[in-house]
Design goal:
Elements (H helix, E strand, L loop, with lengths): L1 E6 L3 H12 L4 E4 L8 H4 L20 H6 L9 H14 L6 E2 L4 E7 L4 E6 L4 E9 L21 E4 L14 E5 L3 H13 L2 E6 L5 E3 L7 H8 L2 H9 L21 H14 L15 H18 L3 H6 L12 E3 L2 H4 L5 E5 L5 E4 L3 E4 L2 E4 L2 E4 L8 H5 L1 E3 L6 H4 L18 E3 L12 H21 L4 E4 L1 H16 L28 H13 L5 E4 L3
Parallel strand pairs: 1-2, 1-6, 2-3, 4-17, 6-18, 7-16, 8-9, 8-16, 9-12, 10-11
Antiparallel strand pairs: 4-5, 5-6, 13-14, 14-15, 19-20
Helix pairs in contact: 1-14, 14-16
This protein binds ligand NA7.
């Protein structure tokens, strides 16, 4: 029997294996992809890039690595992040612990022996004391079930499963469905690469200029010369990122209208998601939020020459409620003659035909159709496995009313199962790498504690999980996040239970995790077999 099975070889799985190995644990890793990288292995669509700055979106645990590695751009493109992850895997000899091209399809907990029996799609089974899901928050793609898709004569692509060899679109009329981060990043590049691009937009998007650029040697040096302090400062931020952009934040209404515009304009010129931090109440007070939203709508009308197109591209939901997007030339792209915008919010797509996409009475002819329709986020991947806890109870049953975790790390009735950046933890509202490191270190310390005390099981109590779910909901309800149809709520997947899944606020969460340990794993039941 292994000490642990780790599922996934992205940022989380690699660091988990690294830490387990340091404890002297035996580990079997499984990865569905052919190589390391997780989300950065799969998401190879043109324009794919991180929305957290590169000097922040990287591991902190290896001081030499962070001195030696040099990022080239403010926001790293996907190939550079993937080569960084590969570099880390080589540097720490982590690849050898994974079986690639292998998907975990199920796992059952053996109550008599305190271990998991994990089944993979190659028919193999591995038993392990601990089962650690490093499966990522955005790894199961969501493709809407639009009638006629099987009749489409051209190529169908999903941004989250882009062909590794790339694709020549120069002679093709491309259609793209979806204007979330993936669509907004891909659209300007696809417009350049294709003969004609048709964008099918269901909901207009608030997107802020990324103002991406090459990094200067002196700014890299400024961070590297004080990297530990820079990391500590970021970790004290609500999302564990953005230290350089914090400001004395005041309510929108403590400022005059002119001062409000001045601050928004300043942040618009700086670019990036921290635009949303202009006012302390932007994501809690609808009136403050509307000030920010109206400013962005004004910018859209400045950039887009055709007023009707500008209207259609102007969102009217709460800004920041769906994840704020950052872009390079997104709105500018709609000034091109070879780009068309089709509103599928008022008239949904009726069907896909052999030659295109029918909306109302009109078929929009395309040769290639791109789904930028996102993911079954945060829970999709683990719910698609057949996970069975105590008494053979399936996780799908346990989570029928939405994910129920303690700290986003542990599930009642599923002992010795850990979920890295699971629902109920800050995860996608933070710099994911920082959140991942905090979870991995917590889990490794926990396993070390159990082993050194002769214990073989840890399980969240139902009371602790219920109280935690209430807490996550209460925190989310103080914000405007639950007020629109976002993937944070599972609202993008038809039939998915509507529950706000991530927990806003990294520093208080970290403190809570530390307190739980200091209080003897408060909220958990610890046990020993036999
Ligand atoms: P998102 O953010 O979930 O965006 C998906 C987009 O696809 C969004 O514009 C959806 O519109 C649209 N969509 C989904 N289903 C349909 C149908 N049936 N018809 C038309 N349009 C549809 O996914 P992304 O991949 O862009 O980004 C996910 C995260 O990855 C991102 O936030 C970053 O964290 C990285 P909707 O808004 O639901 O009306």
């Amino acid at each position: 029997m292994k000490d642990a099975v780790v599922v996934g070889a992205g940022f989380a799985g690699l660091y988990m294996v690294h830490n387990l190995r340091s404890l002297g644990c035996t580990v079997q890793g499984f990865e569905a992809g052919a190589n390391v990288g997780g989300t950065w292995y799969w998401n190879r669509y043109p324009g794919a890039r991180c929305d957290v700055e590169s000097m922040e979106y990287s591991y902190q645990f290896d001081a030499d690595l962070q001195q030696e590695w040099t990022w080239t751009e403010r926001y790293a493109p996907q190939p550079e992040i993937l080569s960084y992850i590969n570099h880390v895997a080589d540097r720490h000899e982590l690849r050898q612990h994974f079986q690639f091209d292998t998907r975990v399809v199920g796992a059952s907990y053996d109550e008599g022996g305190d271990y998991w029996v994990v089944a993979a799609d190659d028919g193999s089974e591995v038993s392990a004391r601990f089962l650690i899901m490093a499966t990522g928050c955005l790894s199961s793609t969501n493709t809407p079930d639009i009638p006629g898709i099987e009749d489409f004569a051209g190529e169908v692509l999903h941004t989250g499963r882009w062909p590794h060899e790339g694709i020549d679109l120069t002679q093709r009329r491309v259609g793209i469905i979806g204007t979330g981060s993936s669509g907004v990043q891909a659209i300007p590049v696809l417009a350049e690469q294709s003969a004609h691009l048709t964008v099918f937009q269901r909901t207009a998007q608030y997107t802020i200029p990324a103002r991406n650029r090459g990094l200067e040697a002196d700014e890299i040096e400024a961070v590297k010369s004080s990297y530990p302090e820079f990391r500590a400062g970021n970790n004290a931020m609500p999302g564990a990122y953005g230290l350089p952009y914090q400001a004395e934040r005041v309510s929108a209404f403590d400022l005059t209208p002119e001062e409000r515009v001045e601050e928004l304009e300043r942040r618009w010129q700086v670019g990036g998601t921290t635009f949303m931090w202009a006012f302390s109440d932007a994501i809690v007070d609808p009136a403050a939020n509307e000030v920010v939203a109206e400013f962005v709508r004004g910018k859209i009308h400045e950039v887009v020459s055709d007023p009707e197109t500008a209207d259609l591209l102007s969102p009217h939901h709460v800004i920041g409620c769906k994840r704020i997007v950052i872009d390079t030339n997104y709105f500018e792209t709609f000034n091109r003659d070879d780009v068309s915008l089709v509103d599928v919010g008022t008239t949904p797509i009726a069907e896909i035909t052999a030659t295109g996409v029918r909306v109302g009475g009109l078929v929009h002819e395309v040769d290639t159709l791109v789904f930028a329709t996102g993911f079954d986020a945060m829970t999709g991947t683990i719910l698609r496995m057949d996970l069975r806890g105590r008494g053979g109870r399936p996780l799908t049953d346990s989570w029928a009313a939405g994910p129920r975790t303690y700290l986003g790390l542990s599930v009642p009735e599923f002992p010795n199962l850990f979920t890295i950046s699971g629902p109920g933890s800050p995860s996608v509202l933070t710099n994911m790498v920082a959140s991942i490191e905090q979870h991995v270190e917590w889990i490794a310390d926990c396993i070390d504690h159990l082993r050194s005390h002769g214990l073989t099981s840890i399980e969240a109590t139902p009371e602790a999980a219920d109280a935690w779910v209430d807490h996550v909901n209460a925190v989310a309800d103080q914000t405007l996040y639950p007020s629109c149809n976002s993937w944070y709520l599972g609202a993008n997947v038809p039939g998915k239970t509507r529950v706000f899944m991530p927990l806003p606020g990294f520093p208080p969460y970290v403190k809570k995790c530390e307190q739980v340990v200091a209080n003897g794993y408060d909220g958990f039941q610890l046990g020993a077999v036999g």
